[in-house]
Design a protein that fits this description.
TIM Barrel, 2 domains, 6-stranded parallel sheet, alpha/beta, 4-stranded parallel sheet
Length: 560
């Protein structure tokens, strides 16, 4: 691997201090944008290329350009959109930031309001999927909106002139050839501390909900493959590696991998090997707007600790169960009925302090006493620690420590699927990785590990590391979940038994209450901070790391 020789510490700290994405957290406590007048639009769920996608692509590109001049345009999505809180966050901006809203009901109205933010338009080719990403890259570096051919008359009515036309340009070319051409033409003009992986949905449906952020920040858009097992993807993989090697160390890969090309595990493994961090989903909306608000004056994060941080507890002869939901709060069940009925740990995407502060404040403000926030996933962004180069790890975790301190978080959640595929495979941490976490986080009360079940466990200086023993798939019948948990309780007969349960996003909390009523005791459902304090008192679990004989890397990735 091409490990850059530049000072990682200097460049990363400089990026943290100076990157445009951090400007929101640098605003004064007086609330720079309090009372701002802004526009909003409602989107539906039609993201078909042959349906609603072309207009949405136009509007999110326009949003990115308009929001360069302040928080001017916000999109409200339906409640069943994957990022479910655009409506509640809209209300939060009204209530806490005094935003004065004006609704725009059509693309025509949006262009009448904001066409002056653009210098022209670029046409993408609906028969060549990759051309949309190239068009988004051009939109960012050339200050133009993205249109398909049927929308040309609309934008020209608002005075916009043609800048570029991709129709026919890439006919018959591979994605590797298309993105290489875009790299040759535009990479030098794109941001170098972040890149937009605009993958996710593929085929007849595309969902570039995060494109406003990439356009606003002048990112390079692509959906290049990280699939090392498919020889047909070799050229794409080579260009992916080249781009990663040229990003600022510790930089961001925004967006998500292509569902049609590779896997989450392959992509996260690869970016971790370069000391980069994944952030967001391809359909995470409104960051170009959210980024421009700081926390409200006087706001301070205060977590719902169930026990003092220095508490010494003693576990009884029973089964202790704790539930944790990762996958970020905004794509889970935060707004659905039942939250608060059970103690829940919620993994927070810590980097939202940099580009979506209002979302974090909204979650903390609306938390119940049973909601407890933990850091993750694996560091200051989503990454696989077994694959992070040793010289990059300390600097990344220094950033994570600072963010956890700001958020009053005292538990780090770790996930490494370098040698796993989804919930199947080896999700354990090497001893070297465990050593590194204990060294870099001396003040946490403990660590949790895994996504599906894992076997890494430890206890040092009264601070345990416990892996998940069970994963609750939302599709699994609740009676079967209860039977599975009861089987685990029976198999792990030594008491106390510490049963850590990962709750997949979209699980209904009310249904989990019913599950707990079927469990065979003695059991106690406890918050995750109390759970770790109890686990520190009696190590009935075996210290274990990834075995040297275990598979080391997912699907053939070599450690470089």
């Amino acid at each position: 691997m091409n490990l850059l020789k530049r000072s990682f510490l200097f460049v990363t700290l400089a990026a943290c201090a100076a990157a445009p994405a951090l400007r929101a957290t640098q605003q004064p406590a007086t609330g720079k944008n309090y009372g701002v007048a802004a526009s909003f639009m409602h989107f539906d769920l039609d993201w078909r290329i042959a349906g609603g996608l072309p207009e949405k692509a136009l509007l999110v590109s326009l949003q990115g350009l308009a929001n360069r001049h302040g928080p001017q345009l916000y999109i409200v999505h339906p409640p069943d959109y994957q990022w479910e809180i655009t409506g509640p966050l809209f209300d939060f901006y009204t209530r806490k930031h005094g935003v004065q809203w004006h609704e725009l009901k059509s693309a025509d109205e949006a262009l009448a309001k904001f066409a002056s933010a653009a210098r022209g338009y670029v046409v993408w080719d609906k028969t060549v999927g990759a051309s949309l990403n190239v068009a988004f890259t051009i939109a960012g570096v050339a200050d133009v909106v993205v249109v398909s051919e049927e929308l040309i008359p609309l934008v020209e009515r608002h005075g916009l002139k043609p800048f570029d036309d991709l129709r026919g340009r890439y006919a018959g070319q591979t994605d590797a050839e298309i993105y290489q051409d875009a790299y040759n033409k535009y990479w030098d003009r794109c941001a170098k501390d972040r890149v937009m992986l605009m993958g996710g949905h593929a085929g007849a449906v595309r969902m570039p909900g995060m494109a406003d952020w990439g356009v606003e920040q002048k990112m390079f858009f692509h959906d290049l493959s990280a699939n090392i097992d498919n020889p047909a993807h070799a050229a794409e993989l080579a260009l992916t590696r080249k781009i990663f090697s040229e990003l600022t160390p510790g930089g961001y890969v925004f967006g998500w991998h292509s569902y049609g090309k590779d896997t989450e595990e392959q992509y996260t493994t690869l970016l971790s090997m370069y000391g980069l961090r994944m952030e967001g989903l391809h359909n995470l909306p409104n960051l170009s707007f959210n980024n421009q608000f700081t926390f409200t004056p006087g706001f301070k994060f205060t977590n719902n600790h169930s026990v003092p941080l220095d508490a010494k507890l003693t576990a009884e002869q029973k089964v202790y169960i704790s539930f944790v939901q990762s996958d970020s709060i905004g794509i889970g069940v935060w707004t659905k009925p039942g939250r608060g009925k059970l103690p829940f740990g919620w993994q927070v995407t810590m980097n939202w302090t940099e580009f979506s502060p209002a979302a974090l404040e909204y979650f903390h403000e609306s938390a119940t006493p049973n909601d407890y926030f933990i850091g993750g996933l694996s560091g200051p962004g989503y990454m696989y620690p077994n694959s992070i180069p040793a010289d990059r790890f300390p600097i990344l975790m220094e950033r994570a420590r600072a963010l956890m301190a700001l958020l009053d978080e005292h538990i780090m959640e770790i996930m490494d699927n370098t040698a796993a595929d989804g919930n199947v495979g080896n999700a354990d941490l090497t001893k070297a990785t465990v050593d590194a976490y204990y060294r870099e986080f001396p003040d946490v009360i403990g660590f949790i590990n895994g996504y599906g079940p894992a076997r890494t466990r430890d206890l040092r200086d009264g601070r345990p590391m416990i892996s998940y023993d069970y994963y609750i798939d939302p599709r699994r019948p609740r009676d079967d979940v209860a039977a599975d948990l009861n089987e685990l309780i029976a198999l792990n007969a030594k008491r106390p038994y510490f049963l850590l349960v990962h709750v997949r996003e979209s699980n209904d909390v009310n249904s989990l209450v019913e599950v707990t009523k079927q469990l065979e005791g003695p059991i106690e459902i406890v918050p995750i901070d109390k759970f770790l304090k109890l686990a520190a008192s009696n190590q009935t679990y075996t210290t274990r790391y990834q075995d040297p004989e275990d598979p080391k890397h997912f699907e053939g990735y070599p450690k470089e």
